[in-house]
Amino acid sequence: MSGAAHPARGAGDRLTAVFWSRPKLLTLLLLLPPLLWLGVVYIGSLVALLIQSFYSIDEFSGLVVPEFTLKTYGELLIPSNADVILRTVAMAAAVTLAAVVVAFPVAFFAARYAKGRWKAVFYLGIMLPLWSSYLVKVYAWKLILAKEGIITWAAEGIGAGNVLNAVLAIPVIGGNSLSTSYIGTFLVFLYVWLPYMILPMQAALERVPTSMLEASADLGAGGWRTFRSVILPLAAPGVIAGSIFTFSLTLGDYIIPQIVGSSRFFLGQAVYSLQGTAGNIPLAAAFAVVPIAIMLVYLTVARKMGAFDAI
Amino acid sequence: MNAAVEFQSVSRHYGPVRAVDAVDLVIEEGSFFAMLGPSGSGKTTCLRLISGFEKPTAGIVRIFGEDMGEVPPNRRHVNTVFQDYALFPHMSVRDNVAYGLMVAGVGRQARHARAEEMLALVKLDGFGDRKPAQLSGGQRQRVALARALVNEPRVLLLDEPLGALDLKLREAMQDELKSLQQRLGITFVFVTHDQGEALSMADRVAVFNEGRVAQVGTPAEIYERPATRFVADFVGSSNVLPPDLTAAVGGPRAWASLRPEAIAIAPAGRLGGVVTGARYLGAGTRLSVRAGALPASNGHRTDGGPTDAPRYLEQGESEIAVLVPAGVAVPEIGAEVGLDWEAAALHVMEGEA
């Protein structure tokens, strides 16, 4: 025994040696399960969905006709269906914009100023709502927003009852009470998805070195200029990541609008009812393709506008 | 000469930590001023007190005679080259350089033309369309320099701007910065922990230690006549002789500095010792000599002790560094040697009580 190398101490050592001499083998082994999952379960079902959306339904028998046609996509343009799409996209856009505005100060504080204990408080505060059931939160909001709920009570208590009534009297977004209006749906969406905006934003802001903000001030920029020209562009990848969450989650959700809001359908509800009682799988599939298409357009536009340049 | 920057007993404390402690400093207009010191000595904090990113806990910072107490960084007529360059990654090199002009409201064409001029000044013509990520470290450093100069600051602050560059590039940039400063004639304030850099570039050097200025002077003054033990040791690793030893080798009873290159190996010298180590430096060899028994023949003893009794040195004060120039025979490790120097080479430090 020369003594230049230790003898292998067992199977583990021998396996390490195999991986050391063939590094690609280890990568392959690590990637295989997720690739299988992604390929078969996710891409596979997505393709199945896409195929279904090009089928149509026989109006007399109610059976799916497995022949390729664009007829089903044409049905999306019927006013009642187009309204559902428009309503959902408008809601998703409103929720995303509001989330950006509300999340930014929180994320900025957490990224730049919070240290040690305050950082822990921040993470706990953001994550805690995610630990409780989504349904519990939504029902809680229904009670908060109800006509007999705390908001109405508080508004009347401070003599702002007529302000609340004036808001509810606004056509389209108003309604009988907050819990049966679009305003209510919007508030609950905003609350439920807000953490998904704050966290990526905070991560992006944390990567902006302080010296960069100092450089901007050093060159004569005031706070607002630094915000527009340095902070916002550098935070853009985080804002985009967050908006992908808030936007697509709002596009696909079918529970919140069912519990809080007017009885008018959102995309998710349309898909849910079409594939269920109506049995119109092709139209449900076509509806389900809409958010995917919207997200692709959104990301392409964001990319064109240079939102990912700072990555 | 006018004072470009003036510190009047300026302190910056963080709780119990005295980052900068009662510093008085005058930086003359048009000079190349170096703030030299180890990390944590307060030199960078002083730079940030000038740029305005730190506010003094006490004292007054003046720029061209004006009290900066209530003036935020964006309204100070000074610009900074940051240690990490702090180039904006989402902007082209041209937009980075033109940023200060954009903020000032200069039109697109005018500021781009000016940015190109600045890029030419730092020899980066034609790089305007690139992104900072596509540049090398040295090129980024030049962009940061051009960006800081575009607003024609009256004082340019440089925070260890050469620290991230490799040796060859660093030396080239030292020359360039120096000639740039002479051409532009504006005040440069330069923070560095590299004493070679400070000595070779600056007109005046302030040596920082533990939040205080240990000495201010020309590079030659700092190097040849260090005021304190710290300066002697930090600038060029001089031998610091305690009072006893100074007296024993013929000086007064006081702390003294003796440069390694001023000492020659001689058969019979002012001090004797044993070679304990040697470090080859190319241009010479740096020997460690443990000074042993002081030569009995030494006639300079002034402490009144019996001159024939050998005096042994304490641990810690006994290692003497000697620089043997290339071409001179280097004694072997373990050899007994004598050390000799010109009487004038022994510098007594007034700053040490």
What would you say this structure looks like, in words?
The complex is a heterodimer of chains A (311) and B (353). By secondary structure, chain A is an all-alpha fold. Chain A folds into two domains: 1-45, no CATH class; 80-310, MetI-like fold. Helix content of chain A is 73%, strand content 1%. Chain A has 14 helices and two strands. A two-stranded antiparallel sheet of chain A has the order 1-2. In chain A, helix 11 runs antiparallel to helix 14 (281-304). The mean pLDDT of chain A is 88. With 353 residues, chain B is α+β, with helices and mostly antiparallel strands. In chain B, the strands form four sheets. Chain B has a six-stranded mixed beta sheet with strand order 6-7-8-3-9-10, with helices on both faces. Chain B is globular. The two termini of chain B are 33 Å apart. Chains A and B meet through helix 10 and helix 11 of A and strand 6 and helix 2 of B.
Keywords:
heterodimer, A: MetI-like fold, 2 domains, B: 353 residues, alpha+beta, six-stranded mixed beta sheet, 9 helices, 25% helix
* Strand neighbour order, sheet with most strands of chain B: 6-7-8-3-9-10
- Radius of gyration of CA atoms of chain A, rounded to a whole number: 26 Å
Spans of chain B of 5+ residues with little confidence (pLDDT < 50)?
Answer: 295-316
Number of helices in the DSSP assignment of chain A? 14
Integer average pLDDT of chain A:
88
| Unreliable spans of chain A | none
CATH topology of the largest domain in chain A: MetI-like fold
Strand content of chain B: 25-35%
> Which two chains form the greatest contact, residue counts included?
A-B, 20 and 26 residues
> How many distinct beta strands of chain B?
18
What percent of residues of chain B adopt helix (DSSP H or I)?
A: 25-40%
What order do the SSEs of chain A take from the amino end to the carboxyl end, as H and E?
Answer: HHEEHHHHHHHHHHHH
**Alpha carbon gyration radius of chain B:** 25 Å
